[in-house]
Amino acid sequence: MKKISYLFAVIIALLLNVNTNAQHDEITGLWKTIDDETGQPKSVVKIYLKDGKLFGDIVKLFRKPGEDPDPICDKCDDDDPRKDQKVLGMTIITDMEFQDGDNEWEDGEILDPKKGKVYDCKLWVENEKLQVRGYVLFFHRTQEWLRYDGEI
Description:
The protein is an alpha+beta fold. The chain has one domain: Lipocalin (Beta Barrel), CATH 2.40.128.520. The chain is about 15% helix and about 45% strand. The chain has one helix at about 1-25; strands spanning about 30-35, 40-50, 55-60, 90-100, 105-110, 115-125, 130-135, 140-145. An 8-stranded antiparallel β-barrel has the order 1-2-3-4-5-6-7-8. The termini are far apart.
């Protein structure tokens, strides 16, 4: 009986690990950010795991004619180490932790490099789109990002 209980516990642990890995695989990779005000693509963000937490780096920018092709985060707070750094290559999503019960990533932050503002953040995948919600107090804004399979 003890062996059956142990075997059952091992099977449950493996199933939980498979579900967690599926959640990680579902969200990691390349995502095309869409401006929720204009509907236009802004950038491609690479989402990845590091030490069990989720991060996101800008790996490509979509620039319009006349826009600075290599912008910097000149509006970031003076105490933010990203201040006056290039936006391309910048880590904009930090320290997201997976919440099993909700199937969401929370408790991290996201930077809007154009405005220089840092927001509390929540991420989840819904209908194959990444839902990205930034918070300030009780106010929030949600963007939908799309999988990206183009060139970097």
